[in-house]
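Quick review question:
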């Protein structure tokens, strides 16, 4: 093909660029080629672009991660499995914020609600370090496939401590049902119940509500006692009897 030999440099530059930037259109490619110092006329580039059939729709969707389905088994004891999830809402002025929620599935006790405008993986690790310092660490964590929870620093933190990661399958939030149910309660009783003007208000009210949720609010799935009371009952039941001398 004479055109292929004649336009070899254009072909090489275009194919390299499109391979790296598969979602770019023609004019974005032309602008980038010019910025890279190529002075080809856009009509010539368009002709080569069409000859290479780059003008046709390209399917470049990324495949979703494949995850095994883990059974939603709950051991009635603390620190067996923690569940993690994120939520988002908006302040009165329009500024968006996020919350990072940590729940102990076995006793339905909320361990942390971190509130900020940005919660990257490093912040997640720092929050979990703080919880582990007073609570002890879990045997496993149930979580979704969010970017913060598949980040290397988070995965390394769990691997170093021997904590198993139970990722749910993409698009299956029901596989993380305990924290999804908690999120619904938190949204109804806190996020949708107040007009927040600052992050400090969200943090203060969330901290107060978290204490009430754990220590005062009866839980239907725990024989209608609060999570902290249920945990104390489980701990007393499983502790060895003291023998008097």
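Suggested answer, residue by residue:
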């Amino acid at each position: 093909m004479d055109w292929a030999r004649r336009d070899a440099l254009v072909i090489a530059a275009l194919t390299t660029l499109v391979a790296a930037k598969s979602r770019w259109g023609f004019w974005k490619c032309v602008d980038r080629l010019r910025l890279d110092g190529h002075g080809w006329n856009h009509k010539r580039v368009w002709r080569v672009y069409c000859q290479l059939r780059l003008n046709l729709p390209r399917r470049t969707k990324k495949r979703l991660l494949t995850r095994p389905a883990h059974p939603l088994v709950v051991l009635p004891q603390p620190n067996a499995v923690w569940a993690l999830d994120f939520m988002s809402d908006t302040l009165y002025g329009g500024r968006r914020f996020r919350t990072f929620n940590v729940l102990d599935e076995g006793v339905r006790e909320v361990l942390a609600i971190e509130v900020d405008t940005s919660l990257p993986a490093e912040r997640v690790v720092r929050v979990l370090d703080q919880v582990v310092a007073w609570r002890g660490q879990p045997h496993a964590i149930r979580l979704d496939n969010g970017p913060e929870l598949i980040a290397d620093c988070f995965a390394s933190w769990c691997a170093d401590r021997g904590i198993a990661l139970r990722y749910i399958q993409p698009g299956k939030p029901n596989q993380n049902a305990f924290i999804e149910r908690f999120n619904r309660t938190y949204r109804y009783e806190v996020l949708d119940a107040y007009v927040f003007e600052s992050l400090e208000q969200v943090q203060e009210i969330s901290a107060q509500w978290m204490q009430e949720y754990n220590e005062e609010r009866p839980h239907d799935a725990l024989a209608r006692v609060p999570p902290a009371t249920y945990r104390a009952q489980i701990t007393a039941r499983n502790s060895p009897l003291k023998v008097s001398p």
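Why it works: The domain at 81-238 is CATH 3.30.420.10 (Nucleotidyltransferase; domain 5). The longest helix spans residues 199-215.
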